Amino acid sequence: MISNHHFKNKKQSALEAFQLLIWNAYVQKVCQPDTEIVDGDNFKDLSYDKKIIAVLQWIKQ
Q1: For 12-36, what is each residue's pLDDT tens digit?
Q2: Which listed residue, of 11, 17, 19, 20, carries a Cα 20 to 30 Å from 28's Cα?
């Protein structure tokens, strides 16, 4: 949460809070991954790492 003591005045506080709100909405709607891969790590052989494979397939699209 944003408190007023971080800003120079109330007008700046309201503007910064609005900008943060817009940014958070943008990140939630636009920047979310198509799929989330939470396992499949293979540090010994990256050619079998599920995240690496997904990135390469995404780049090829």
Answers
A1: 678 888 888 888 888 777 777 777 7
A2: 11
Asked if 37 and 59 sit in the same domain, the reply is yes
**Same domain flag for 37 and 18:** no
Question: Is residue 46 within 8 Å of residue 52, measured between CB atoms?
Answer: yes
**Over the stretch 30-58, which tens digit does the pLDDT of each residue have?**
777 777 788 889 889 988 999 999 989 88
Same domain for 59 and 45 = yes
Are the C-beta atoms of 22 and 15 separated by less than 8 Å?
no
Buried b (16+ CB within 10 A) or exposed e, 8-47: eeeeebeeeeeeeeeeeeeeeeeeeeeeeeeeeeeeeeee
Domain with 54 in it: 33-61
